[in-house]
Structure prediction request, 124 residues.
Amino acid sequence: MACNNTPKESAPQKEETNTEANTSTEEGIHYEGVIEKETQELVDTTILLSSNNEYTQTVVFPGHEPVTHKGKFEWNGADKTIALIGEDGKKEYYKVDAQVLIYLADPNKKLSPEEEAKVTLHQK
Prediction:
């Protein structure tokens, strides 16, 4: 009977639509962290991926107000990446790994572990 309790604990994290939790339950999967962008600035970044292939991204550059972007995202199962597609059609790529998103300034460049550490968002 103890085995039955474990799946019940993990299942609501993905399936319930509960207003008590804002992370991976209410609207999708929530990632956040401080990542280094092309400008070499550390940017406080939050991404919410919804089950309907829509995303909400909030970024806060040092000394600025938060800016929120919304759009669709595409999943590429072959290379385990997602592309956030902005309203202007511009794509921003992230590698999907175990409970993290890794920002890819250049989706064709392989990052070292040190570089990945600077651009990783963690699932919350």
Summary: Confidence is low (pLDDT under 50) at residues 1-25. DSSP finds two helices and eight strands in the chain. The two ends are 29 Å apart (CA to CA). The longest strand covers residues 67-76.
